[in-house]
């Protein structure tokens, strides 16, 4: 059990981190011009209005992060306080850290500009450690989550900058830089924290109840409804509308496919709530990288069908195999919801990039594939971009996911080693998946097994 002194020390550390953030904001962060009072004779408020117009989508993403992710992880019957509470804590922490880390890579005059778009970017970044938390749910302490988040967001910001600004890949909905990174970073940490071979069986509280599964479905529903906003918020022009349309169709197709495949592979051909809670969302991940491309309605539906099928099969067969053979406990199955669907999205992005031409995308090409500016699909003419042809862009899409996996897995292994072999306290087997170590739980709950 945790000593009161150790708990107090841990929360003091959390407050110290918040104070450090305060100092960094004071030193480096300033409002962007659009957030400052305009001069009396100023006429152009277009840029400010554009930022404000994104506020509805910002609200949608807030709902996804703070409600969707939080309630999706309440399926553990004795971990509801921690699932929702630690989600709120981590997201609030990471949003601040992401503003700073991503801002340091785009400083002007030694200062970080703060706008609504920066906060939206930071909210999206908050999804990364929350995805990783899903792989470790119920098996880490708050101070371990803090440490993981600090390391992970720093690596995420560097990898995203590398992928989007150096490799110049297309990743509108973040399936490569957000979902793949978060999933495989979390899995690498989980691998380092895996139990001894004689303690590999599931914990006594590592399961759902009828009530906890219903609460988890609330999270699923919120994520499903608002996912088109997540994928489209950073899209430009008509690409934003395509992102909404493609995401919705892919989610719908994945949902139908999930119900069918779940009934086919589950015991007694009954629906499995784990599949319905998670695999129905796989279409949103799988279409993320390509959501603003010219997929056609049939392309979006096909991606959703593939994602739903792969996700359900992963939950049914791959996750148990990983647990029994690798001792890798992926509590929420992030490999099936975020990892493999993100790989599908990366492969799809290479396929569609290889077919991209100026004739198809017209003026939008410079927003979607900026490195291809000046190409006509076959002949390369360097006119402001890097002058790639479609085949080269497809290669860079695959290179982007490969580097992302390398950084995520490598960073996760190093972070897991720090959490395991330094002075961080690791929870014991009988302490997993229960709230009472960090929360005041009603007495009636403590008496239940």
Automatic annotation (TrEMBL):
UniProt lists the family membership as follows:
Belongs to the ammonium transporter (TC 2.A.49) family. Rh subfamily.
Q: Which residue spans adopt a coiled-coil conformation according to this UniProt entry? A: none
Q: Where in the cell is it found?
A: Membrane
- Judging by the UniProt lineage, the source's domain of life is Eukaryota
List the InterPro entries.
Ammonium/urea_transptr, NH4_transpt_AmtB-like_dom, RhesusRHD
Q: Which GO terms describe its biological process?
A: ammonium homeostasis
Show the stretches that span the lipid bilayer: 6-29, 79-99, 145-164, 176-196, 208-227, 247-266, 301-318, 339-359, 396-419
Q: From what organism does this protein derive?
A: Drosophila gunungcola
Write out the GO cellular component annotations.
plasma membrane
One GO MF term: ammonium channel activity
Keywords annotated in UniProt: Ammonia transport, Glycoprotein, Membrane, Transmembrane, Transmembrane helix, Transport
How is this protein named in the record? Ammonium transporter AmtB-like domain-containing protein
Under the heading SUPFAM superfamilies, the entry gives: Ammonium transporter
């Amino acid at each position: 059990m945790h000593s009161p002194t150790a708990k107090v020390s841990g929360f003091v550390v959390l407050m110290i981190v918040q104070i450090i953030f305060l100092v960094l904001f004071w030193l480096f962060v300033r409002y962007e011009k659009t957030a400052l009072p305009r001069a009396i004779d100023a006429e152009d408020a277009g840029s400010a209005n554009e930022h404000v117009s994104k506020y509805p989508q910002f609200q949608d993403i807030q709902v996804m992060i703070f409600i969707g992710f939080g309630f999706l992880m309440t399926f553990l019957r004795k971990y509801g306080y921690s699932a929702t509470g630690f989600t709120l804590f981590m997201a609030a922490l990471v949003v601040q850290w992401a503003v700073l880390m991503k801002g340091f890579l785009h400083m002007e005059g030694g200062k970080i500009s703060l706008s609504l778009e920066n906060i939206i970017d930071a909210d999206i970044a908050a999804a990364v450690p929350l995805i990783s938390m899903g792989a470790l749910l119920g098996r880490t302490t708050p101070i371990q989550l803090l440490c993981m988040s600090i390391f992970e967001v720093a690596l995420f910001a560097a990898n995203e900058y590398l992928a989007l600004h150096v490799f110049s890949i297309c990743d509108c909905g973040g399936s490569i830089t957000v979902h793949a990174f978060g999933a495989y970073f979390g899995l690498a940490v989980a691998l380092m924290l895996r139990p001894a071979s004689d303690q590999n069986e599931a914990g006594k509280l590592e399961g759902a109840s009828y009530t906890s599964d219903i609460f988890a479905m609330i999270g699923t529903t919120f994520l499903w409804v608002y996912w088109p906003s997540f994928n489209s918020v950073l899209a430009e022009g008509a690409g934003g509308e395509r992102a909404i349309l493609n995401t919705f169709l892919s989610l719908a197709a994945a949902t139908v496919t999930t119900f069918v495949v779940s009934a086919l592979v589950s015991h007694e051909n009954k629906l499995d709530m784990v599949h319905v809670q998670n695999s129905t969302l796989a279409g949103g991940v799988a279409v993320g990288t390509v959501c603003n491309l010219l997929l056609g309605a049939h392309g979006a539906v096909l991606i959703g069908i593939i994602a739903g099928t792969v996700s359900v099969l992963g939950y049914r067969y791959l996750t148990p195999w990983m647990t029994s053979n690798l001792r890798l406990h992926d509590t929420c199955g992030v490999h099936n919801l975020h990892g493999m669907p993100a790989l599908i999205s990366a492969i799809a992005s290479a396929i569609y990039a290889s077919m991209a031409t100026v004739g198809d995308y017209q003026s939008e090409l410079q927003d979607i594939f900026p490195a291809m500016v000046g190409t006509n699909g076959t002949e390369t003419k360097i006119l402001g971009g890097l002058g790639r042809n479609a085949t080269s862009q497809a290669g860079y899409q695959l290179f982007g996911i490969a580097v992302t996996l390398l950084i995520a897995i490598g960073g996760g292994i190093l972070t897991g080693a720090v959490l395991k072999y330094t002075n961080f306290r690791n929870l014991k087997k009988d302490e997993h998946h229960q709230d009472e170590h960090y929360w005041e739980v009603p007495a009636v709950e403590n008496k239940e097994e």
